[in-house]
Specification:
444 residues; Rossmann fold; six-stranded parallel β-sheet; 18 helices; 14% strand; binds nicotinamide-adenine-dinucleotide
Length: 444
């Protein structure tokens, strides 16, 4: 099948490469000329484990090409996957303008019947709006091809995106005709046959809602355990053991019950806000989600409180952020807690260093004033405190002696519970983690 993928970013590029691996003939279209040039050069434009190897394979096989020109991508495609961004507006609603632009482009360039598939994360009812856009554009252009809108949300996780896409835990698509459903079936037939993953076939609005409900639920679990962690700190309990104890219940499970700095990334923060916004718009306010968001923001503020508790005032102090990316395995900084912390620390006059094996340059560009480091020991040297923001291997491997040797004051705020508290405290590190009973004694 010939497939066009519009927007070759974190979702689009990985999806395009997977479609090509499954034997389809794929063209990736992006309006960012620099990204297209990098991809045509044979290089992925962002870091993702296994992506470069997969690209090498499918590009060499001649099944994936890239272009900035819609006339090279859309004509002849049976399915066009829209994978453009849906970033948040000020009011929490998602900006769907990029998606609308895709619908207009498809209406203009389709040379036959085609299914326009929303892979971007969108609020329920977006499909209907896209259909209106297409009908109007086609009327203006005098085009009569049948363009149907389908929904096929993406569940990949950055850091394991290639693995998640090649071996999905489920495939969900929503269509409004048998013809569109058959196109989606044909797209995924190779992976369903090979992997036997469950397939949910439904209508467009239900499919759209599955994605928002899934992300909102996962974010809720994270905020839930973070709220429990705060209580643990007050009553001297250990949140990791609490989570283990809860997780043995098969109705609960252990996943997404790790207390820490809170969720970040390009999806959870914006998708929680977008779902809350949609709920308000349809007259069913989902206040639980407002609280999920508030707890998440409070986790970052809590780190600043712990730093102040140790360092008194932060003006003139040097703080090293260990990890910049929102999670290990990616160089994505969108909504990364480290970015929020860096801005907050610089605003109160602290000097901020950031270690990250792949995103050090990016955080210095994103937050002017941050000193980038790709060597964890150099990043710690003579700093007044370290904050663990991302559990990269290099960070997890740091020993109490490493901290004691490098830091000016041996203060470590572990925002990811990456270290074992007992050896840290025994060695004399002023070690604070999230929701775990052991904490350093008062100074003096
Ligand atoms: N990143 C994730 O982990 C993830 C997971 C699941 C779902 N999603 C959703 O997928 C969507 C895309 O996210 P992403 O992280 O891949 O974004 P991204 O910013 O990495 O990629 C979007 C790409 O679209 C391109 N683009 C924008 N407008 C265009 C247009 N009109 N024509 C052609 N190209 C255009 C951009 O240049 C960019 O390369 C979002 O809705 C997101 O919520 C993301």
């Amino acid at each position: 099948m010939r497939i066009a993928v519009i927007g070759v970013g974190h979702v689009g590029l990985v999806s395009a490469a997977a479609f090509a691996r499954w034997g389809h003939d794929v063209v990736g279209l992006d309006d960012d000329a620099a990204k297209v040039a990098t991809l045509r050069d044979g290089r992925a434009w962002f870091h993702e484990p296994g992506l470069q190897e997969l690209l090498d394979e499918v590009v060499a096989a001649g099944r994936l090409t890239f272009t900035g020109d819609p006339t090279e991508a859309i004509p002849g495609a049976a399915a066009v996957f829209a994978c453009v961004g849906t970033p948040p507006n000020e009011d929490g609603s998602p900006n769907l303008a990029y998606l609308e632009a895709v619908a207009r482009t498809v209406a203009e360039h389709a040379t036959g019947d085609v299914v326009l598939v929303e892979k971007s994360t969108v609020p329920a009812s977006t499909g209907r709006r896209l259909e209106q856009v297409i009908v109007r554009e086609q009327a203006r252009l005098g085009s009569t091809h049948r363009i149907e809108v389908a929904s096929n949300p993406e569940f990949l996780r950055e850091g394991s995106a290639v693995e998640d896409t090649l071996h999905p835990d489920r495939i969900v698509y929503g269509t409004s005709s048998d013809a569109a459903r058959d196109v989606l079936r044909a797209v995924y037939a190779p992976v369903v046959a090979a992997d036997g993953c469950p397939v949910v076939e439904t209508d467009v609005a239900t499919s759209e809602l599955i994605k928002h409900a899934s992300n909102a639920f996962l974010a809720t679990r994270i905020s839930f355990i973070n709220a429990v962690a705060r209580i643990c700190e007050q009553v001297g309990a250990d949140v990791q053991v609490v989570a283990d104890g809860m997780g043995h219940d098969p109705r609960i499970g252990r996943a997404f019950l790790s207390a820490g700095l809170g969720y970040g990334g390009s999806c959870f923060p914006k998708d929680v806000d977008a779902f809350a916004h949609l709920a308000r718009a349809v007259g069913v306010p989902f206040r639980l989600l407002d609280e999920v968001r508030a707890i998440n923001v409070a986790q970052r503020d809590h780190v600043l409180d712990k730093l102040r508790q140790e360092l008194w005032h932060l003006d003139g102090k040097t703080v090293t952020l260990l990890g910049a990316a929102f999670k290990p395995g990616t160089d994505d900084l969108r909504e990364a807690p480290a970015v929020h912390l860096a801005r907050a620390l610089l605003a109160v006059g602290a000097r901020v260093r950031a270690f990250d094996p792949v995103a050090h340059v990016a955080i210095a560009a994103e937050v002017p004033g941050v000193e980038p480091h790709d060597d964890v020991h150099a990043a710690l040297h003579e700093a007044h405190a370290a904050v663990v923001c991302t559990e990269w291997d290099e960070v997890v491997a740091l020993s109490p002696e490493d901290y004691l040797r490098a830091l000016a004051y041996p203060i470590v705020i572990d925002g990811r519970n990456a270290h074992d508290p007992a050896p840290m405290l025994a060695a004399g590190v002023r070690y604070h983690s999230v929701g775990r009973a052991a904490a350093p004694r008062e100074v003096g």
